[in-house]
Amino acid sequence: MRSSKRLGIMIGGCSLLITILMLVGIGYAIKDQLFPSVSAQPQVTALPEQTAEKNQLRIVAIGDSLTKGVGDSAGGGYVKQVVDSLAADPDKQAELVNNLGISGLRADQLAQNLKTDKGIAYALQQANVILLTIGGNDLFQSLQGVGDSNAAATAEQSMSLAQVEKGLEEGLTRLDNVLSELHRINPDARVIYMGLYNPFFDVEELRDGSLEVQKWNERAYDMLHGYSNMTMVPTFDLFEERIGSYLSSDHFHPNHEGYKQIAQRVVQAL
Amino acid sequence: MHKLLLLIENETLKMWKKRRFLVIVLVLLVIIPMFTYAQLTVAQNNKDKFADWRNEVLQQITDMQNRLSSNRIPEEWKKQQRIAVQQLQYYLDHDVNPSSPNGVTFTREFMNNAVGLFIPLLVLTIGSDLVSGERGTGTIKMLLTKPVRRWKVLFSKLAALTLYVSLLVGVMVLLCYLISGMFFGYGGWGLPIFTGFTINGSEVDTSFVHVVPQWLYMLMQTGLVWLSAMTVAILALMVSVLVRSTAASMVIMMASVIAGTILSSMSSSWENAKYLFAVNLNLPAYLEGSPPPIEGMSFSFSLIVLAIWAIAGLIVSFSVFTKQDILN
Amino acid sequence: MEQSNVVLQVTNLSKKIRGKQIIHDVSFEVRAGEIFGFLGPNGSGKTTTIRMLVDLIKPTSGKIQICGHDVQKQPEQALRHIGSIVENPEMYGFMTGWDNLQYFANMLDDVDEARICEVVEIVSLTQRIHEKVKTYSLGMKQRLGIAQALLGRPKLLILDEPTNGLDPLGIKELRAFVRMLAGEGISLFISSHLLSEIQLMCDRVAIIDKGRVLAVGSVDELVQQAGTYVLWQLEPREQGIALLLQGGKVAIVSEEEHRIDESVLASMPEAVVTTMPLEDIAHTVSRLVAEGISVEGVHKAAPTLEELFLNMTEGKSLA
């Protein structure tokens, strides 16, 4: 009897307290959402500096769809295979910090990201090995998907080949920007740049593309040579003549085997 | 006035003795540890995989961007992803962990996910039989033959319902905090949280973004959760006045709440759906800066829609209840 | 002066539900301290009328006054003076008897714990009042219902079919209880579809059928009006009948005309049904015996409710 009265008062009291609290919350929410105080805008804070331990390989992969691993039926691309085979070696402790590959990324976009994105910089600073693929999209964007289609659009293709030549200079400038940004962010990490290959080696009209690819690789090597911590891993020789077995069905990206070949070269380079 | 208090006490004790609330607490005691465990596993995974949260967020952003470049994904979904990317990027740029694992963050996210469906369902279990239940058992005759005006009877029920909705929200927050805190720690009250993202199409405008400490964010969010729970409660009360059977009243309300969830997740092209109450229940989403389920909805829009539904519900409940003939 | 003596005054009460007239122009009054029967077959509008008395249903037209207060206009003042059980005594099964009473006490004025104890005492539930209502038997629920109705010290107690579902012993207890309450000055309004029930309990009665009040008056008067049958069991039968008719005061009622309860007929096989002045029975018996007719049984049979209605509707149509 009395106890039920007390129970009632207790329930009522607690609930009432919460109700009041809720009303205060709603009041704040309305004030906050409808009349936001702009003065309280947060300052952009600098990310903390990283202290790297030397005895370990901390890998950040960055770049385009090759880094992402597009075309690899097992997923993960060459990056995963590099990390896996390094991890299997007990002397080398390898760890993938981040795989920041984004499909379709061009060198100018990457340079922009490197310049502005603090998160990417943060990850790169943690790394002592940076794997980089970039440039393919700058050079070949107009040609993607060509290998699958029949040769009906030959005229267009040869025109595109002309575009490839034109894109070469611009792409190399962009690559230069990327490299200098990388150097700015982390001058100590080993940067391994994958050279380009010509995915259209088996398409008669585009076979000459290999010459452009070679020019790119040559010039890219020059740039990389300017930085003591950067090296290039060539890939063009892997794919010529073996397009059928190393390229995936989209005729642009490597398949699992193709990635395996790239990964082996990277491991050797390390 | 004293009489009214006694009536409210009556209803409150009656609901307590019905043991419904106890059932709800038991449900929470089962569900919260489950979610805590799930969260713990995720946290554990990420801890193994990433050096710290920045890498984790960075990877999230990269993954989202990759998904965005796929052609197979519907444009509506891409829009949301783009917004999410921009917000995550904002957190990363400002070196604030958007989901640091601690009791408070867990509670915040749990409540955030519960507001659309879970909380309404719990509210319905206490609200749906308030009047129809008394009709079912015939006790309504005992109530209404007493020298008390009918509006006072209904008002006492509404007041008790309000108290229980508050208690429900309060207990839920408390249990979340206590249980998840055992695993994630009890800290995190002072963590900075960003709010004030404004969405224009698929672009996020950050010019109004500001920091609030997590405790204040929690207070605001829980207040909004309470507000949408109250709207559901009032409508449940209305339906239970209008419909004679408790089962029917429960089904009607559940169906509308679930339909609302489906409609909002479909981002439907049926634009008028935005005037339905169930589509507007997710008020905390505006705090968080998630895009609204339907174009043209905003925080104030949802507040007004819910308020109109609630007021209409109250008017209908009271006018029907005070006039209706009790025939069975 | 007479007005203050009236506890419940119902004037020209009508109710339409979904366009259908359920109650037609019902009027009656219940006076202080009397037991008022409300008699009618199932579906006659008894429950609808009772629900209007206790404000569960709003009348379409007409007026209900309880102790001078209009139920429509001043429900709080009017309902204060009545206690009621409409149909079954439904209480909250998940609460104890005591909690239920406490609950209803909170809805009334000036009902304290002492009063709750008092009513529990009156209905003799003291033993089990702290147990949950869902464990109660129907009789106990009935008593708890009455306790609840008595809480507010009502001037009028409304009981709707109170004997429904009770065993004979329970019914007997209930009658005694009703008498006891009346003795304490409470007016009672009791509805039933059984004439015998009303006859045993009530002082005055209103008879309702198809939503109309057919008659209001004292129970004895009404039964009288309807006439009583006298059943004769004679041996030899034919001679006896001839002798019965000799006096000229006795009339034989044919099988088609009378409506006597089957059970009564069964206990008197071959009985002759008659109507006659009741004071002549003794005289007639001695006359028959003197003529050598053996009288094996004489029985006064009250008319059934049906009979009563028939008489009344006939009377009405004649008038």
Automatic annotation (TrEMBL), chain A:
Q: Indicate the transmembrane segments per the record.
A: 7-30
Alphabetically sorted, this entry's keywords are:
Membrane, Transmembrane, Transmembrane helix
Sorted alphabetically, which SUPFAM superfamilies does this protein's record hold?
SGNH hydrolase (SSF52266)
Q: Where is the SGNH hydrolase-type esterase domain?
A: 61-260
- Mind telling me which InterPro entries this protein's record contains? Ester_Hydrolysis_Enzymes, SGNH_hydro, SGNH_hydro_sf
Q: Mind telling me what this protein is named? A: Lysophospholipase L1
This protein's species is: Paenibacillus algorifonticola
Which Gene3D superfamilies does the record associate with it? SGNH hydrolase (3.40.50.1110)
Taxonomic classification: Bacteria, Bacillati, Bacillota, Bacilli, Bacillales
Q: Name one Pfam family in it.
A: Lipase_GDSL_2
Q: Name one GO molecular function term.
A: phosphatidylcholine lysophospholipase activity
UniProtKB/TrEMBL annotation, chain B:
Keyword Membrane present in the record's keywords: the answer is yes
Q: Name one GO molecular function term.
A: ABC-type transporter activity
Q: Does the record carry Cell division as a key word?
A: no
GO terms under cellular component: plasma membrane
Q: Which domain of life is it from?
A: Bacteria
Q: Which residues cross the membrane?
A: 21-40, 114-133, 154-180, 223-243, 250-270, 299-321
The identity of this protein, by name, is: ABC-2 type transport system permease protein
Automatic annotation (TrEMBL), chain C:
Pfam hit, one: ABC_tran
Q: Which residues form the ABC transporter domain?
A: 8-235
User: Does the record's keyword annotation contain Transport?
Assistant: yes
Which molecular function GO terms apply here?
Answer: ATP binding; ATP hydrolysis activity
Protein's organism: Paenibacillus algorifonticola
Task: Please give the superkingdom of this protein's source.
Answer: Bacteria
Q: Which residues form the signal peptide?
A: none
Q: Tell me the InterPro entries matching this sequence.
A: AAA+_ATPase (IPR003593), ABC_transporter-like_ATP-bd (IPR003439), ABC_transporter-like_CS (IPR017871), P-loop_NTPase (IPR027417)
| Name of this protein | ABC-2 type transport system ATP-binding protein
Q: Which UniProt keywords apply?
A: ATP-binding, Nucleotide-binding, Transport
Q: Which family does it belong to?
A: Belongs to the ABC transporter superfamily.
